[in-house]
# Entry
Amino acid sequence: MPVTSLLSDEMLRQVIAVGQADIAVGIPTLNHGGVIVDIVDAVTRCFRTHFPRERAVLLNVDGGSDDGTPELVLDPARDQRGNAGGGLRTVHRISARYAGLVSRTKEVQVAFAANELINARALAIIDPDCAVSPDSVAALLRPVLTEPCDFVTPVYARSWCEGALVSQLLRPVVRGVYGRSPLEPAAGEWACSARFASDGLPGELWDADLGPAGISLWMGTTALAGGYEARQVGLGLRPAPIRAMRAALPEVFSQVVGALFRSLELHAPYWVESRPPGSVPMIGQPTEAADDPDVPATEPLVESFRAGVRDLEPVLAEILQAETWQAVRALSESTEDVPAFGDALWSAVVYDFAAAYHRGAMHRDHLTKALVTPYLGRTAAFLAGYAGSPAGATAACEALGLEFERAKPHLVERWNPGGTQ
# Structure
């Protein structure tokens, strides 16, 4: 598909008027009028303070806002507020709607297409639903400009019990399958090189609505499988959402896990081969989180796990191998307050789900949502296991990653039973 066909006439006109650039920040929006001013000001101050000599472009890819978001982005008043940081060059701002259905995946594709024309060496994508600072935006962009680096993800200071979807599922799976994983494999903000963005334009998932976390996960795994230089950089405490999350857990979970499993399909030629484990280099040191977090209650998780196993028995029995299914059912019938959902069983469950997704055992959306049930049981076991000794949680997450590495042959065997991908 020609690059220009991805851009609306209005966006193409603005991009051509800008010409060449050194750095760009893409901000996808849909009715973000209540927050976009602060985001634009933060990005502008980043340009003027941290990159005063670079030609910079703020690229707002809008899904059709009716609250004045594009007008706020282009408001000349932004120039006066952003000029406080100085800077030797004009900061260009582009804002235009894109054609087609609204999705974060489409927004990133349009940003890639625009960057193909302005040829910025470093492009960052910012989640407009979370607060950003000039320093955090600069930290994502700088490695692409100063190091041999194609993809950068943030590392946030998390309490041990925060982000179970990341620590108990996404990170260990990516590590186990690809041989290494960033600590935040699905962060809503990231940066990439012009080469990475250009190579990604012919990608195979652009028509899928992966959501902010899903598109980030796909981009990150593509960097790992494609041989690109990846880095991760500490950005301190995770920014608080500035807009309430609208989607429920099953929907978000299904979207993110669907992106993970689809990535495994696209990258199978890479990961089915045996590869030595490695790591994604860290720039700087991550900030430590608070020591006394509020640990979520485990009782509702256990109740949902037990009820889900009963309700989904035919589904789970079809997805899981017989031995794994029997172990999960036995856990759900356990008299323990919180059943001990161990690492080996959890890796077997997830890899069975990934293989079932690949072979089309059932409707994929139903399959990924069914994984919520064992996930809740595993999360409850993790929270209960370290509520009294959180210092051991980090070591437990490391052990979980090692278990997914060890169990990878189980996935390869189930993924490719007939000798074909």
